[in-house]
Amino acid sequence: MLNAPGVLPEHPVPSEACTLVFRGHQLLVDAGGTLAATPRPWLAGLRPLRTLDFSGPDGRPWAVIEVEREHEPPPGHEFRHLKSLLDTLPVGTRSLAARALELLEFDRSHRFCGQCGAPTALATRPALMRRCTNPDCGREHYPRVSPVVIVAVERGNEILLGRSPHFPPGLYSALAGFVDAGESAEQAVHREIHEETGLRIGKLRYFASQPWPFPHALMLGYQAEYEAGEIVCAPDEIEDARFFHVDTLPAVFPTRYAMANLLLRDFCLRHGRPWPPAG
Ligand SMILES: [Zn+2]
Questions:
Q1: C-alpha 215 to ligand 1 mean position (Å)
Q2: In angstroms, what is the span from residue 134 Cα to ligand 1's centroid?
Q3: Cα–ligand 1 centroid distance for 138 (angstroms)
Q4: In 10 A of CB 266, how many CB atoms?
Q5: Which domains occur in the chain, in start order?
Q6: pLDDT (tens digit, 9 = 90+) per residue, 17-64?
């Protein structure tokens, strides 16, 4: 099996590629929170749970290693949850780290073929995947991406924000939900807003997208115009939802990198308000 084209051994020795190291969702960084070259002697002593080689957006070779939960970082380094680093890592590094974490999750969760139950083997051509080792099946499994729509519904100088029961105190965010099978992103926007608040929305504008690797979401940001209806929150999903005036937004915002933050920022700037709001 190992000689088949594009098939890798399960745990190749870390190559000379630049290396990202994850412990669960925690990325190994230096004390300043920056991705630094990982010390080779430390890497050589690792017993990785898994190792994957992959290409960055510029084609540069990278490797990602997952280590056991009890692994201590090398001197001068620390493991920090990727969510806490998203605001500070440079865009290129953030994207690499998101890709690496999603690939680890994919590798971990696709050890067996979903079609016939046989073990799968890691392969890299035509793209990174796990291929079924049963010669009568051979099904190829690729990393999964789950689209999520997140929507800023605007009514003049007001914006609709809501909170789930599990949000930290005071935090409100744009409403979001997974795209269902057989559904377009735009249909998902209309459905989610109606299901969660009872409101009808009119014109939609696509805003931007971003990966959210916990574990494999792709956030699709939309801006929508309120059309009709009174807010009735969906029990169990939304604890509270309301229109906030641009001058009286909630005090706690989603993390700076998050799409909800970018939507709020755009809303404020279009209404001539500073971002983040003073006070
Ligand atoms: Zn199979």
A1: 24
A2: 6
A3: 6
A4: 16
A5: 18-141 (3.90.79.20), 146-270 (3.90.79.10)
A6: 688 999 999 999 998 888 888 888 888 888 889 999 888 877 888 889
pTM: 0.86
Cα(181) to centroid of ligand 1, in Å?
A: 23
Q: Which residues have CB atoms below 5 A from the ion given as ligand 1?
A: 113, 115-116, 118, 132, 134, 137, 139
Q: Which long-range contacts (CB under 8 A, 24 or more apart) does 103-109 make?
A: 103/52, 103/54, 103/64, 103/128, 103/143, 104/22, 104/50, 104/52, 104/64, 104/66, 105/213, 105/215, 105/216, 106/130, 106/142, 106/143, 106/144, 106/216, 107/50, 107/52, 108/50, 108/66
- Count of H-run helices and E-run strands, the chain: 5, 14
Spacing, Cα 131 to ligand 1 middle (Å): 8
Residue that is written with structure tokens 């953030």 in the block: 94
